[in-house]
Amino acid sequence: MLFLVFYFLLFVVLIFQGTHVAGEVKTPLGTLPEEVGQNPVSSARWGILLITLGFLGAILGLLGFGSPTLAAARPAFLFIGLAVLALFGLWVIFLGRKAEFMGKPAPVDHHGHH
């Protein structure tokens, strides 16, 4: 029973996390300056992957209640979900946000400063 709680919780987290990362590109939350924005293409791909995997895992888990074969596949799919979540976490920490200077430097004003 505890395994099923973690199983379904993981795939719900994948769905919500995928929705967040895919949606943040079009409608950012405004919590970070635009200089550290995410790559829109990579974010969309990660979002689609996480949402798809989340729904697939949840559907597989629900269908496993009626099919012993699908129920036996749950541990392997849990491992796949955890691996993808770990890779996504590494991407967010190390590759997802790159600071880029997007504006022009302010002109130097030598007048009035002593």
Structure description:
- By secondary structure, the chain is an all-alpha fold.
- The protein is 68% helix and 0% strand.
- The chain is built from three helices and no strands.
- It has helices at 2-26, 40-63, 68-96.
- The radius of gyration is 21 Å and the shape is rod-shaped.
- It starts with a helix and ends in an 18-residue tail after the last helix.
- The model has no long low-confidence stretch (mean pLDDT 83).
Number of helices: 3
SSE string, helix = H, strand = E? Answer: HHH
Report the portion of residues in β strands: under 5%
Q: Write down the oligomeric state.
A: single chain
What is this entry, summarized?
This protein is mostly helical. It has helices at residues 2-26, 40-63, 68-96. The protein is rod-shaped.
Keywords:
114 residues, mainly alpha
Question: What is the secondary structure topology, with strand pairs?
Answer:
Layout: H1 2-26, H2 40-63, H3 68-96
